[in-house]
Amino acid sequence: TEEMNYGEEMGYEITGIEAGAGVVAASQEAVETYDSLSGWEVATSSSGAMATALGEAIENEEPIIVTGWTPHWKFAEYDLKYLEDPEGVFGDAEQIKTMARSGLEDEKPNAYMILDQFMWETADMEEVMLEIQNGASPEEAAQNWISNNEDAVSSWTEGTEEVDGTEVELVYVNWDSEIASTNVIAEVMKEQGFEVTITPLDNGPMWSAVANGEADGMVAAWLPATHGSQYEQYGDQLEDLGANLEGAKVGLVVPEYMDVDSIEDLQP
Ligand code: PBE
């Protein structure tokens, strides 16, 4: 069947996010892998610019392909679908994992234990993301989630003692999902008496800050695929505290109204 020539309408451009993101690297690999994407490019910008472009395209019912991921508020806001990826370039379901610097367990055992016990679900993260998207500050959205989820929070702090102003520095990237998780864990630690700094960095610098001990930890490691190359580079210099969320996913995302289901349906 003759498909719409969406490529021409989109200038053969996939709307990407930050250049350092794993989903951007995977999208570039998809361009190399699929004949249907030959001649296409992944335009990099920021997660915020991608979300704005997606919203504008949907408002005008125009075609758009974005580098997408779950958990994300955009699935609650719009009717969207992942394009099938028969070559498996984007990998399967992923975990979001927590990484700590080596030495943290000995030096700040209570902070280490909270990071280690932090674990929640896609719906939780999306709830916080959506509230931020609808105008709440990240701190406010995190505090609201915490007061509505006391049981979860007490399972993260279980067995720990309150502290008196111990400093903790967490690093993250300004991706909506990581803004949500990092603010929630930061607010929980503040309630336990920590003085918490959260510092947004690019992806590579986030990993190296924990690996070289400049930062205490992060809750933003997407594995095995999305941050596979960062894990390969830094994995043996940091401590892997396991999953804080299961069932994450990345891929190319389009509005439902587009008449295309698979990356293979696109046209060079
Ligand atoms: N993301 C959100 C990140 C991981 C978390 C999918 C944009 C990335 O692609 O690296």
Structural description of this entry:
This protein is α/β, with parallel strands linked by helices and 268 residues long. It folds into two domains: 6-90 and 250-265, 3-Layer(aba) Sandwich (D-Maltodextrin-Binding Protein, domain 2); 94-248, Dipeptide-binding Protein, domain 3. It contains twelve helices and nine strands. Strand 1 (13-15), helix 2 and strand 2 form a beta-alpha-beta unit. The longest helix is centred in the last third of the chain and has 16 residues, at 176-191. The protein is globular. It starts with 5 loop residues before the first helix and ends in a 13-residue tail after the last strand. The structure holds 1,1-dimethyl-prolinium. 1,1-dimethyl-prolinium binds next to helix 2 and helix 10.
Task: Sum this structure up briefly.
With 268 residues, the protein is α/β, with parallel strands linked by helices. The chain has two domains: 6-90 and 250-265, 3-Layer(aba) Sandwich (D-Maltodextrin-Binding Protein, domain 2), CATH 3.40.190.100; 94-248, Dipeptide-binding Protein, domain 3. It has twelve helices and nine strands.
